[in-house]
Amino acid sequence: MSQINPQRYFDCEDCLFRTISCQYIQKEEFEKLRSKSVQLRYKKGEVILKQGAKSTHFLFLRKGIIKFNYEDENGKNLILSINKAPALIGGANLVNAEFNLFSVCAIEDCEGCTIDVALLTRIALGNTLYLFKMLQFITDVFRSSIFNFISLAHKQVNGRIADILIFLSQNIYMNDAFVLSLSRQEFAEFAGCSKENVIHTLRKFHNEGLITVEGKKIILNDPERLQKISKHG
Amino acid sequence: MSQINPQRYFDCEDCLFRTISCQYIQKEEFEKLRSKSVQLRYKKGEVILKQGAKSTHFLFLRKGIIKFNYEDENGKNLILSINKAPALIGGANLVNAEFNLFSVCAIEDCEGCTIDVALLTRIALGNTLYLFKMLQFITDVFRSSIFNFISLAHKQVNGRIADILIFLSQNIYMNDAFVLSLSRQEFAEFAGCSKENVIHTLRKFHNEGLITVEGKKIILNDPERLQKISKHG
DNA sequence: TTAAAAAACTGCATTATTTCACCTTTCGAT
DNA sequence: ATCGAAAGGTGAAATAATGCAGTTTTTTAA
Lengths: 233, 233
Hints:
Two copies of one chain form a homodimer.
Chain A (H helix, E strand, L loop, with lengths): L15 H9 L2 H9 L3 E4 L4 E3 L7 E7 L1 E7 L5 E8 L2 E3 L2 H4 L7 E4 L3 E7 H9 L2 H27 L2 H16 L4 E3 L4 H8 L3 H13 L3 E4 L2 E4 L2 H10 L1
Antiparallel strand pairs in A: 1-8, 2-7, 3-6, 3-8, 4-5, 4-7, 9-11, 10-11
Helix pairs in contact in A: 4-5, 6-9, 7-8
Chain A binds a DNA duplex through helix 8.
C-alpha cells in the first residue's frame, strides 16, 4: 500500500466509475478527480477503512471482495455485509460526514482507486443527477445488508446459514459451487452465532446431502431445499 | 383518514419541515409543495404506509410515534425501528423509487402532512443543498435502526431487552419512566424473540429491582446496571 | 522442511430460548 | 353490565445454542 511512488496497476480507460461518471460530468471534471486518485492493491485480510477513523477518501473497488465489519465494545465482531466489486465503498459518510462507523476489510485480494471525498462532494453538489447516481451507488452497498439483518432477526441458525449460503452463491460468487473467502469464525460473525454452531450446521447440511463441504470448497447440491430451510426459519 | 374535505388540524406556521425547507428553497416553491399536501391524523395502530405498495407521498410526521415493520413470507413481523416526530417517513424510496420495503404504523396517535414525492424530488434536484438536507432527514430514520440490528446480531435476549429499554428511555420517551406504546408481542418483534421471553425477562429485571414494571408503565430504576447488562450481552 | 501457530473440527455439559397448555386481566362493543 | 376477544402472564418440557476441552488438520514463517 506504498504511496511513495504512486503506481499504476491498471488502466483507467475501462473503469466503470469513469464510464458512469462521464455520463454525468465533464471529462475535465473527471480528470480533476482522477488527478487526486491513487491506485491501490490490498491483500486478503488487509483493512481498507478503519472503524472510528475519519476517512478523507472513498474507494472505488474495481476488483475483489470485501466485508463491512463492526467491532463492539467487547471486541466482538459482526460482519454487516459482504460486497464484491464493482462498488463504491465508504459512503456511510457522504451524507453524514463523521467518523467511519464500520471497518472495511478485503476478504480476497482487491484493487481499487481512492476518491477524494471533498472533491467528489463539491462536484456532485454542482450536478444533482450525478449526486443522485452516487447516492444510488452508496445505498446499494447498504441495502444489501438489510435483508441479512432481517434474516438474523427472526430466523434460527439453520435458516440464517441457509440464507448466507444462498446469498454467497447468488450475489457474490454467482455459482452453486464456490471457494469460501471466509473463515468459519468470520462465517459465524456474519451469521451471528458461535463458530462451533457454523461447523455443526454445515456438517449437518453436508450429511443430509444438501451441500458438499470440503474445507473451503462448498457446493450447493439442492438450492431449492436450502430455500425451504431459509423460509421455514 | 378522509380526504373528501381536506381538513386543517394544525397551523403550518410553526412546522419544522416548513422552517427547514425555507432555509433552502423559495417560499413560492414551498407553497407548491404545500398546495399538494394534506394534513392527516392516524389513530394508534393505523397503517401509514403499507409494505409492498407504491407510495406517491412521504409523510412529514409532526406528532406521534411510529414503527417500521417488516412482515416476512410466513407472516412473522419484525420491527426494524421506532421513531418519534419530527421525522420524514418513507424515504427508503427517494433514491430507489420502488415499492415500500416496509410498513409504517402509528404506535401512538400521530399527525402529519403528506408530501408529494415527485414534486419534492423535482425541487430537490434543482437545489442540491436542499437535496442533501432531505437525505439527511431520511437517513436519520435509517441509521437509528443499524445499532438495533447490531444489538440483535450478537447479544442474547437479556442484553437486547436492556438495549431496547435504554433506547426507548433515551431516544423516544426522553425519561427514565414511561408508558410503553408497544404490546408485549410488539416488544418481542423488536427484540427478535418470543413474547414469553420478553415477559419472563421483564419480570426478572423487575424482581432484581433493575426496573419497575406495572403493566405498560415502566421505570428504569438503575440505568447504569442496565447498561452493564447491555454491554455484557 | 519442519516447528509453531492458527484454523477446523468433535462431542458433551451447561445454559438459553422456544413452545405449549393453560390461567388471568383488560378493554371494547353490544 | 356483560360477553367475548385480545393481551398479559405462568411454569415446565422440549429444543436450540453456547462454551469448553481437547484432537486433528492446515497454514505460516523460520
